[in-house]
Amino acid sequence: MTAEDPFAHLHDEAYADRYATPRADRRTLVGTFGRPAEPVAGPWRLTLDPFEEGLRQAWTAFDDAPPTTWTVPRDWDPEGGTPVPVPSCWNLLRPEWTHYEGAVWYETTLDWAAGADGERAFLQFGAANYLARVFLNGRLLGVHAGGSTPFSVEITGTVRPGPNRLMVMVENRGRPDRVPMHHVDWFNYGGLHRPVTLLRVPPVFVRDFGVALVPDGTFGRVRIDVILSDPVEGEARFACPDLGLDVPVPVVAGRASVTVEARPDLWSPDAPRLYDVALAFGPDLVTDRVGLREIRTRGTEIVLNGRPLHLRGVCVHEDDVATGRMTSEADVMRRFAHLKDLNGNFLRLSHYPHDEIVARLADREGVLLWAEVPVYWAIDFANPATYADAENQMLELVARDRNRASVILWGVGNENADTDARLAFMVGLAAATRAADPTRLVGAACLINREAFRIEDRLAAHLDVIGLNEYFGWYEPDFEGLRRLIANSSPDRPVIVSETGADAVVGLRGEGRTLFTEDWQAEFYRRQAEVLAGAPWIRGLAAWLLYDFRSDRRQTRLQRGFNRKGLIAEDKATRKRAFHALAAIYAAMAADPDPDPDPGRQNRGSVV
Ligand code: GCU
């Protein structure tokens, strides 16, 4: 809207076209890598914008003159917003915002003081669900799609000394072409749900920094990968004092990759050894704390540091009755404590990238992780833009967590029907993931072939590990189907039961298969374990799931907007009988982690 023609925007349904670029995607991401990151904590204000008037009327061009001075009426002013904390999910801040799906505007003043000569400055967003547009002083700096991965926008040249107006439009509508699309079994929280920080870096800086054990079975070679912000020549320096390493890293056209001999103590759940590493290029210094380990498959085994691994796990959503998708260190350490009480060693971070503190703490605590992008159910597999979105989210996740030893598997999909379009989409995504990170396993939670009634999915040939989601005993009344499935299947690679579970309401008791009772949920796991023991190629189990969570799909009197398959209620404290049943099952597994050795295995012994 302008003083000249306040009505022009009313008839312009192509208003968003001029706000489509520049894209803030994987290529613009600036890894923090131990640099001092200044939080942009506000105060922030939020304004709902269901019709995207902010784009139509260019609210970002408005000055902050008080209404009494306006010559043309406006529909927005900075003082009109509601004070909100960032990070937060707007759904939990006001009752009337609980089910709001649409666009909102965050606004704050960024007070800026210039730093070193030539410095460059970036705003980094931990995550914004789902589409974010970042404006500084009215200029669009970046557009990011994807609700759970970090992105950066450069403010150098736009930011000025003193107060700057920072406005971020976040829109979380469910759409068929998005990743995930509009139909999911979890709550669509919206907002800037992870921290916003400010990074100051030299004119040429380290954009990407990878340190990993070369997965060649020698356990004696460490590869260092570097990508700089600019295609320059020069020499970086890599140091790892505890490994006695202080080596030059030649940089050509802004990239470097060197492999050095070393004999690290290998990272494992029982011995989560971390090494302090640093890389300097000119005035830029990046650091990290990394575990060095090798994860691979061997026949139907998953092998960690050369020894067979059996995964005793549970799935978990980012969901909290008080904070929604926000994660805190206390929340993560509580998850790990519950996993430990389950005698587990593995978490499947469902169904989207979780906060980066999860993998950092898992590195320290020795917890194994499956991390994934939300290619969930009926994604628009034939849409190139949808593929680009999925691939970008995966590459942002890999860039963020590439140095996290605890992450052993990248999940590229969940319960997607086996169609030609899906196969092409997923094969491409699996290949892109492997190209970005050859040091981890790639898997997906697959569906079974219902006609042949066996584990069979054309995607499996492109995966290292087949995830099997099965609910025999819950969605299918008896376990006979699971027995048939096992008898009919002979996979040539490891299988993890990536989901199995049953709903239960705390305190609801009953005999036999009385649905939603604690008794049946507990018996469900006992029966599952009994039948699954007959499949030696099953190398892990991820129970669905640790905590009850919000899902608007679930509206019976027993669920009331919650999926109640949690082993613990949504209070993250009240344990159901099934928790103890599964803990006993995992204790038995831990005592004999390798009940059915793979005939092809050379050496005995199992790491956990
Ligand atoms: C599916 C799906 C989960 C869902 C679960 C359930 O397997 O992957 O996201 O919540 O089943 O039905 O509870």
Describe this structure in words.
This protein is α/β, with parallel strands linked by helices and 608 residues long. The chain folds into three domains: 194 residues, Jelly Rolls; 88 residues, Immunoglobulin-like (Sandwich); 290 residues, TIM Barrel (Alpha-Beta Barrel). It has eight helices and 30 strands. The strands form seven sheets. The protein has an eight-stranded parallel barrel with strand order 21-22-23-24-25-26-27-28, surrounded by four helices. A hairpin with a 7-residue loop joins strand 11 and strand 12. The longest helix has 18 residues. It starts with 37 loop residues before the first strand and ends in a 17-residue tail after the last helix. The structure holds alpha-D-glucopyranuronic acid. Alpha-D-glucopyranuronic acid binds next to loops.
Keywords:
6-stranded antiparallel β-sheet; single chain; 28% strand; alpha/beta; Jelly Rolls; Immunoglobulin-like; 608 residues; 30 strands; disordered C terminus; binds alpha-D-glucopyranuronic acid
> What is the topology, as strand order, of the major beta sheet?
21-22-23-24-25-26-27-28
- What is the CATH class of the largest domain? Alpha Beta
Q: Give start-end ranges of low-pLDDT stretches.
A: 599-608
Q: State Rg.
A: 25 Å
CATH architecture of the largest domain: Alpha-Beta Barrel
Break the fold down into its secondary structure elements and pairings.
Elements: E1 38-39, E2 44-48, H1 53-56, E3 82-84, E4 103-112, E5 120-125, E6 131-136, E7 139-145, E8 151-154, E9 162-171, E10 196-201, E11 206-213, E12 221-228, E13 234-240, E14 245-251, E15 255-261, E16 275-281, E17 284-290, E18 295-298, E19 301-304, E20 307-309, E21 311-316, H2 329-341, E22 346-349, H3 356-365, E23 368-372, H4 384-401, E24 407-414, H5 420-436, E25 441-446, E26 465-469, H6 480-488, E27 495-499, H7 518-532, E28 538-543, E29 549-550, E30 562-563, H8 577-591
Parallel strand pairs: 21-22, 21-28, 22-23, 23-24, 24-25, 25-26, 26-27, 27-28
Antiparallel strand pairs: 1-10, 2-3, 2-4, 4-9, 5-8, 5-10, 6-7, 6-9, 11-12, 12-15, 13-14, 13-16, 16-17, 18-19, 19-20, 29-30
Helix pairs in contact: 2-3, 4-5, 7-8
Bound molecules: alpha-D-glucopyranuronic acid.
